[in-house]
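Item description
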Amino acid sequence: MAIALVFTAPGAMAQQSTKIPAWLQKHVGTKDGQIAPIVLQRARAHYERKRRQGKVRNPCYLAMDATRPSTSRSGKPGRRFYVICEQRKLFRAISSGYGNGRKLQRANFSNGRQCARNFSNAEGSKLTAGGSYVTAETRTSFKGYYRQSGKRKPFHRTFLLFDGEGDTSNARERAIGGHQAVYLKWQCRFKNPKSPHADKDGYVPYGKLVNYTGGRSNGCTTWSPSASRDILSLVKGNPTTLYIYPEGRDINAVAKAVKSGKSLSKAGLYWNATCLKSIGAPKFWPKRQLQPIINEWRRSLPKQKPLVLPICK
C-alpha cells in the first residue's frame, strides 16, 4: 500500500477528534498487522501535542512497537512499525529493526534475532530507546560500489535524523534515526580515479549489499528499501512525530510484574506475549548505569591500524 500524502489546513486539522475513529479501531489489537492500544494512544497523544505546539503539520504520524517479534508466524518479517494518516484513513503496518546491543565482560545487554530483551538510551549501547521523537533532516552518504546487472554502481544510503525529548533527548548524540535495512559489506577496493568518492590514491571501496529487513540494527529504526523510500518521501521537508514503545517506565513495570508473578493485563501493562515468553523479562539499562561501563570498555580497547582493503582481483 503506497503512502498517500495529503496536506490539510491547520484549521481543519484542529477539528481532529481525540477519540479513535471507527475505521482505525479495526486496526487496534495485538495480532500481526495491528497496533496495540497503548502504542496508538501514546502515538496519537504525542502527535496532537506537537501539532498544537506548531512543531509538526504533517497529516501523518509514526509509531513502533519494539516488543513484537522479528518474524511472524507466516515466516515473513514481523510488522511492528506503523504509518498512520487519519485524514486519509490510511493505516500501514511494516517491519522494522530494533537495536542488537553488545555483550561486554561487565555487562551483557545483547538482543537475540527474534525478540528484544534489552533497551537503553546510553550512547554506544546499540540499543533501542523507547519514547517520543520528531523526525528531522536527512543526510545521504556514499557507502561504496556494488555489482548490479553486471555493472558496478555506487550505493548511497539516506539517514533520517530523529530529535528526542526526555530519555531520548540524546538521540543526536547517539546518532539515532531511521534508514533502509541495507548495508554494504566491504570486500576490496578498485581503482576509479574519476569517481567523486575516490581516495587520494584513486581507489573506491567495493562490496556486497546485505539486506537485513526485519532484523537487528545498531540502535536505529530500519525499514525495507521500498518502505524506506515511502517514509523518507512522507517526511521530506515536512517533519512528523514518532513514538516508540516501550519506554523505560514500561520496561521496569513489566519486569516487576513478571518477577512477582502478576498478570500483565490485570496490572494494566502490555508486552507482546510471544516475545515475553521468549525473553522471560525485559530490562532497561539507564544511561547513568550503562554509560560508565561502555566508556571503560572503549578505553580498554587496543589501538588498531586503519583498515586497508585488498585490491579487487
Notes: The two ends are 43 Å apart (CA to CA). Residues 180 and 223 are 5 Å apart (CA to CA). Confidence is low (pLDDT under 50) at residues 1-17. The chain has seven helices and 14 strands.
